[in-house]
Design a protein that fits this description.
heterodimer, A: 2 domains, 15 helices, 18 strands, 29% helix, 23% strand, globular, B: alpha/beta, Rossmann fold, 2 domains, four-stranded parallel sheet
């Protein structure tokens, strides 16, 4: 099985390249050591002893650089159709490639939402025309994301949707979610859930706590998320369904997922780099471009719980919730600004800088979680084992860079990392067997 | 001082310098000709995205008393009505080269944004439920004339703290001047975690007798609809300041406009303990002082830099 065929991307030549003397780390495949990573025809041909003679193949000096299995993001917004001024499949997938990703899952809250088999087919076709990395698509659970009637889940699955989500909005009605879980038995497909009780969130724009009290901003309490997780986990258990909880933000939510899993619920979940690196203290800047999103940045204690959850496996994976917005939607007072930040290009570097370098998180564990989002959507995770499709992120863990200084691959600039100095940078990404990205400033030595 | 965006940005010395300056303008106000030429030839823009009576009137009169040219814009009837963004409005106004922009906006951080987009000195005349620094300064000015100082004074802020920018600015300002503040109201109207700003929290008026100053907040009628309080009557039963609850040595303040019979009973509003009329009068001189400090104080007298302020009223020019 390969990502290039399971998901959709622009067809191209399989890469022929050798990463000379790379420090290879694939904790899942149990690979750790210095190798020449030989890629032929888009496949990892072998992990050779450094220095072997190899002709007719591009040589990349990777000494001192790290080769990881490329990352998989189960939660991005590509804004197509309808909001191409923010992002489209081409720019969004390029942004993913620049972040070291070899696969992304696009959410369905477009304009109009992805809700029919034809919608899914059109997007898949567009990805085959313009996606730099393999892309999977979700469709909405309910028609028009109105939370009332189910989409034609069976036909949509047959058209190739990976699963379903009304992301951006919770499914208010327990009855509707229950019906979707019943229907899931027929058609399969993971149901990914944006967990939030709109009654509790009200007109909140940030985490409810001392910072919202100081700023006079309406708060979104942590229980808005955790109570819905508990409700939906109970429904999934009752119906034998499988759910994926999106963007966990609060300690109570980590506990709710842990309790659900212990009770036997088929549940997986994700956390975003911004929730793992920032707390609501950042909102004191009143800068919505970097610090306004839903769920909101929560307390330092919540952040600690997310890190612990990522470490102990309660949280399966990192997901960026890459949410591009145009400048004019963010250059307004905090309460009026659109929710969401971009994250694909900075996810690994930010987590490496904020969590790995200070010793909070083990590098191998981060690498594992960066691709942990494949399994919840029944996709085989990228591997560096010989014989695998080439999905490789070549990184310089010592490179320092300032986010945004050289612009973005994304069409939007609302990176939560804008202006931050990060350590660790993706130099080359191989995705679906193709070279999907090369950092412009990274010079390549090509054999004669 | 480049802008006045939040009380939170000011040190005690800076606050005191503004209050001292206001004192000298109070002296000007007792002259026959109340106008001074300080800001002649300079433009002050007053940009109000929310309705306001006292704040807009007093800022505009303050600018005129300082001889500034005034451009007064209300959201209704301007291009804002036609969907112009705050940033674009700022760019348009910048063409008039304003020395100061006084802005009231329904959302937090608006004044801060304008400060980033404009060369002008920006005065926050209220941003959402965030801050209302000129109100806090005029309240301090009013109190300073009645009390020897706020060090150790006990001040209770009573009512809808959650929706009040006045509560937030005053809480910070009162504490900056050494007062001990208690916020009091029904739990749904006290923001969770506010005690981390250093105040005490009470959900009952039982301890009110300790207060030297009672600062009541407006309760908006629509709060009932969102179940913040079951009814105005229920609210008044628990939290209305009336002559039974207000002791004879306690001072009463309110930012206005008052809902008579809700947060305050009629008799305390009209009692000699009420400083409400003085608050309005203070508004003018304090706002003159704010504009003066921002536009005329000049680098030779950086505000609060020495940690000292001048003795007595400053002579302020000749009548215009």
């Amino acid at each position: 099985m390969s990502l290039a065929t399971t998901l959709d991307m622009r067809p191209g030549e399989g890469a022929d390249v050798v990463l000379r003397g790379a420090t290879v780390l694939d904790p899942v495949a149990g690979i750790e050591g210095v190798h020449d990573v030989v890629v032929r025809g888009g496949e990892i041909a072998e992990l050779a002893t450094p220095g072997a003679e190899l002709d007719g193949i591009e040589q990349i000096d990777a000494e001192g650089l790290h080769a990881f299995p490329a990352f998989f993001d189960p939660h991005v917004h590509l804004r197509t159709p309808g909001q191409e001024h923010k992002e489209d499949i081409e720019t969004g997938s390029r942004s993913a490639a620049a972040g070291g990703y070899c696969g992304i899952v696009a959410m369905a809250n477009t304009e109009p939402p992805v809700g029919t088999p034809a919608d899914v087919e059109a997007l898949r076709e567009a990805a085959r025309e313009g996606a730099s990395v393999p892309v999977g698509f979700l469709a909405t659970v309910t028609r028009g994301m109105e939370g009332e009637e189910l989409t034609e889940m069976g036909a949509i699955r047959a058209a190739g949707a990976l699963g379903f989500s009304d992301d951006g909005l919770p499914i208010r009605s327990a009855r509707v979610l229950r019906r979707a879980l019943q229907y899931q038995r027929l058609c399969g497909g993971t149901i990914a859930l944006h967990e939030e009780d709109p009654e509790l969130s009200g007109d909140g724009v940030m985490h409810e706590g001392p910072v919202s009290a100081a700023l006079g901003l309406a708060g979104i309490p942590a229980v808005s998320e955790s109570t819905m997780i508990a409700r939906d986990a109970a429904l999934a258990l009752y119906e034998g369904g499988r759910i994926h909880v999106q963007h966990l933000s609060a300690r109570e939510s980590v506990e709710a997922v842990g309790a659900a899993r212990a009770a036997g619920v088929q549940i997986s979940c994700e956390a975003s780099p911004h929730h793992l690196c920032l707390s609501d203290e950042s909102v004191r800047s009143l800068d919505p471009r970097r610090h306004k999103m839903n769920p909101p940045l929560r307390s330092e204690d919540d952040r600690a719980a997310l890190i612990e959850g990522l470490r102990d496996g309660t949280i399966d994976c990192v997901a960026t919730d890459h949410a591009p917005h145009a400048a004019e939607e963010k250059e307004v007072p905090f309460e009026q600004a659109a929710m969401g930040v971009t994250g694909l290009e900075t996810a690994f570097a930010a987590l490496h800088t904020e969590l790995v370098l200070p010793g909070t998180l083990d590098l191998a564990l981060l690498i594992e979680r960066m691709a942990g989002g494949a399994a919840p959507f029944e996709i085989e995770r990228p591997s560096l084992a010989p014989g695998s499709e080439a999905n490789i992120a070549l990184c310089d863990l010592g490179a320092e860079w300032t986010v945004g200084e050289e612009g973005y691959e994304s069409r939007s600039q609302n990176s939560w990392c804008a202006g931050r100095k990060l350590t660790g940078r993706v130099l080359i990404t191989l995705a679906g067997g193709q070279v999907a990205y090369r950092l412009r400033s990274f010079s390549l030595g090509v054999a004669a | 001082m480049r802008h006045l965006l939040a009380i939170d940005d000011l040190r005690r010395e800076e606050i005191e310098a503004i209050l001292d300056r206001a004192e000298s303008f109070a002296e000007v106000g007792r002259r026959d000709i109340k106008k001074v030429p300080t800001l002649r030839g300079r433009t002050v823009v007053s940009l109000f995205y929310e309705s306001s009576t006292r704040t807009s009137a007093s800022f505009e009169l303050a600018a005129k008393r300082l001889s500034a040219d005034l451009v007064s814009l209300k959201a209704a009837g301007s291009s804002v009505d036609k969907g112009e963004s705050l940033k674009d409005t700022c760019a348009t106004l910048s063409a008039y080269d304003p020395a100061a922009i006084v802005i009231r906006h329904p959302y937090a951080g608006a004044a801060q944004l304008v400060a980033g987009w404009s060369e002008a000195a920006v005065v926050n005349a209220g941003d959402g439920k965030h801050e209302h620094p000129s109100q806090a300064l005029l309240d301090l000015f009013t109190l300073r004339r009645r009390l020897d100082g706020l060090d150790g004074a006990k001040i209770w802020i009573v009512g809808d703290v959650l929706h009040s920018r006045v509560a937030r600015s005053n809480l910070i300002a009162f504490q900056a001047m050494g007062a001990e503040v208690t916020v009091c109201g029904p739990p749904a109207l006290i923001p969770r975690g506010i005690e981390q700003l250093g105040c005490a929290v009470s959900h009952s008026l039982d301890g009110l007798s300790e207060a030297d100053v009672v600062y009541a907040l407006r309760l908006q009628q629509e709060r009932m609809k969102e179940s913040f309080v079951p009814s105005l009557r229920e609210y008044a039963t628990h939290f209305q300041i009336d002559s039974r609850r207000l002791g004879p040595r306690q001072l009463l303040m309110h930012p206005g406009p008052v809902n008579r019979g809700v947060e305050l009973s009629g008799e305390v509003i009209d009692s000699p303990q009420s400083l409400m009329t003085e608050q309005v009068a203070s508004g003018l001189v304090v706002r003159m002082a704010i504009l003066y400090e921002l536009l005329a104080a000049g680098p030779e007298r950086p505000l609060g830099a020495s940690g000292e302020h001048e003795q007595g009223p400053t002579p302020i020019g000749q009548p215009a």
